[in-house]
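thought: fold this chain, then report.
action: predict
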Amino acid sequence: MERPPRKVKNDKLASQSLQESIGENDTPSDALVDDAVGIKSPTLVPSRYTPPPFGELFFLLEAFDHVGRHLFDSEWEGTEFEAAKVPDYKIKARDRLAAARAELTDIVEKSKELTTLQLRTTKDTDNRRNTETLQDLATASRALMNEIAALKPYEWGLDDELGRRERYEVTLKCVTNALADGSLRALYLPMTYIDRHSWISSAEFAIILPLSYVVRRRQKMAFRRKTVFVERNPFREWLARIEPINPGALEKLPPEIRARFVARKIVAAAPRPLKMDDFIKQLLEKVDDLSERAAQRIWGDKGTDMIVPQSWRAKGPKTHG
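observation:
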């Protein structure tokens, strides 16, 4: 008769058994990563792992929309997430339309010149030649006008489509780059952190924004698609460090946040390390509504908010970087 497995009564032994099954070098989030990333299935959930409450999460689509509004301010329409790539034939039609209009303008100018010349010419041979040329120009003009009329509908709303698509691509690149380099962490149900290198940088994955989905193109794992979230507070902290593209959006930000973007440019443009007084002087000149105390805070910031290199603040010889 087979003996039933012995129950583990000691909590310490149970914890040790759990850790061994996860792996000595794995963190709790590593143990939760799906087979999709080639590490482990989330079969064991350590008791110390606490997923964030649902109210502290943004759907991927929400995060995308917040980034777009931050970057483009009033230019953002809110429908960019469904902006399809503009077909090539529309671009070609627009280019041909511009060329046809230029050709028509040249024909009109030539016709005017020939008409004026014909009125001054008394020779019959010259008049006949000019008349034939004018007739040819009139025929070409009618053909171009018909072509322009046929191509005009492709021009309607094209600039709006191109602008919407451009905003979509810029915003999506901003989000995906942040997910790829770890500035943002994505989660999928059941609140499992996604290994950034496994899907953002892989051609086998696709993002479907309207559904906040990440989709695996090849069926090599347990799931085909997952709903993706980002944590609100880390997302807001990250977004505050992103400089808006629209100048109007930048002007609406508080002085100290605007000054941080200016400070990054000062540091990048400096040919050599600056002293504190010189740095603060430049910063106050470029952000006139910034207080000196706020400028000093920017100089002394450390950690993720650090803008001024630590070597600039160190005593002794200064190094750039």
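thought: worth noting. The longest helix spans residues 88-120.
final: tokens above.
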